Amino acid sequence: MSLPLGILDQSPVISGTRPADAVAETVRLAEAADRLGFARYWLAEHHAIAALGDPCPEILAARVAAATSRIRVGTGGVLLPYYSALKVAEQFRMLEALFPGRIDLGIGRAPGGDRLTAQAVARGPYAFADDFPEQVRDLVGFLDGTLPDSHPFARVRAQPAGETSPEVWLLGSSGYSGALAAELGQRFAFAHFISAHGGGAVTRAYRETFKPSARESAPRAVVCAFVICAETAAEAERLAGSIDLRRLHMALGIDAPVPTADEAAAHRYTERERAYIQSQRERLIHGAPDEVRAKLLALADRFGADEVMILTITGDYASRRRSYELVAKAFGLGG
């Protein structure tokens, strides 16, 4: 089975490193992904989180695209409720002008941080979905110059204009974004790494109810999974300790960088904590290369997904890069 693979990068800040190191590692990993034959490289937006170093994926996307030559580059995603649809359209029309045919615009509606931070970014209450469908329609209209004549901003043109336009993807971890993507005739990406349950039904419903649009004649779906791949299953299990402790920190409200494998191994879990991290393992695919390949193919089949995006965070940057290399080799990607 030929399955296009992409990478979602949250620019993790690992204990003992600086946020600037996380950004530099993102560029280094993107260069490797370009060589290895991955299809896409998406950057995530998070705010005021010690473990995640990228609040501005639209800026980092320009750096990543400049450092690569083949791979599609984009966002997974821009948190649209914070912003003007026109301004986002202008940013991505500029990226498209710089790197024609290589830009993806993934958009979401989550706040990407805590409530106080969301209020600071939005300069007021965060409107999770109050006018999100209208924002998406306006964004696509500005990108393509297709706002209806009755629209109050129909005469406004997003620059720089051009013959090509970024791909638009709606991101989600529930049925809301899938249903909206189907209604608007847009591409859809489901975040299995956030929600391990119900995603297959959401994606199938998206396909069944999809309405063709000027942009998309047929549905196109991606599933994004958290993956840790190592030479052996035992090593993958050891590396998974870092994300186990990171997820426990999140549940306890502890704002700290991603723990190293040694820090994770040194943590003494209570029975309650151990039960919690075990419950979160459903969001993780890990193991040796053949096992990871089989699990990703099964996941894509269950979702009816056209592509798979992979998110990998470990307690050191070398093992993170190695995980992607092993997955690429297991799937026979070029590079």
What is the SS-derived class? Answer: alpha/beta
> How many domains make up the 3D coordinates?
1
What is the CATH T-level topology? TIM Barrel
CATH class: Alpha Beta
Looking at the overall shape, the CATH architecture is Alpha-Beta Barrel
Task: Give the overall form.
Answer: globular
Query: Mind telling me the CATH superfamily name?
Result: Luciferase-like domain
Question: Ranges with pLDDT <50 over ≥5 residues?
Answer: none
Helix content bin: 40-55%
How does this model look, in words?
The protein has helices at residues 19-36, 57-67, 85-98, 115-122, 132-144, 175-184, 199-209, 233-252, 261-266, 271-280, 289-303, 317-330, and strands at 5-9, 40-43, 72-79, 103-108, 167-172, 187-191, 221-229, 284-287, 307-311. Helix 1 packs across helix 2 (57-67), helix 6 packs parallel to helix 7 (199-209) and helix 11 (289-303) crosses helix 12. The protein has a single domain (5-233, 285-330), classed as Alpha-Beta Barrel (TIM Barrel), CATH 3.20.20. The chain contains 12 helices and 9 strands. The chain is of the alpha/beta class and 335 residues long. The chain is globular and about 65 Å long. Strands 1-2-3-4-5-6-7-9 form an 8-stranded parallel β-barrel, surrounded by 8 helices. 45% of the residues lie in helices and 16% in strands.
